[in-house]
Design a protein that fits this description.
Layout lengths: L2 H56 L3 H84 L6
Helix pairs in contact: 1-2
Length: 151
Amino acid sequence: MTAGKLKKLAVVAKMAEQVSARELSASHKSHRDCVEQLEKLLRFREEYEHALKEKSQTGMSAAEMQDYRKFIGNLNQAIEEQRQHVDSSVADLAGVEANYRSRSQRKQALDHLVDQRLKAEARGKEKAEQKESDERAMVRYRSDHGDGSGT
């Protein structure tokens, strides 16, 4: 395969790597957002439990206590669902990272191959030019010194 064709493949690989890098960035952001949401829910539950403890010490009705506990139960369920989202985002992020690494390695390999091919083509061109130069020199030498037959 010529260096020109390899260059085209390398450009396509670079574009794929850039797309993958954007996907990776978006996946990192999505994961951070999931973690932040979980942290908010945990802080909110902690604050709500603290408020419940204070209210229960000053006195509250059974209905208020039941409402607090029901709300905390709902909050616990939301926290568990958010934990599942975080776990899912970790798995998604791992897949996107693996995809990025694969595309990046492919791009690097193609870049290396293009570089090698360009160097090989340059060496071949140099050899051809040297051979042509040697042949011209030989022709000039022969014309300057006769054909070498001694006649």
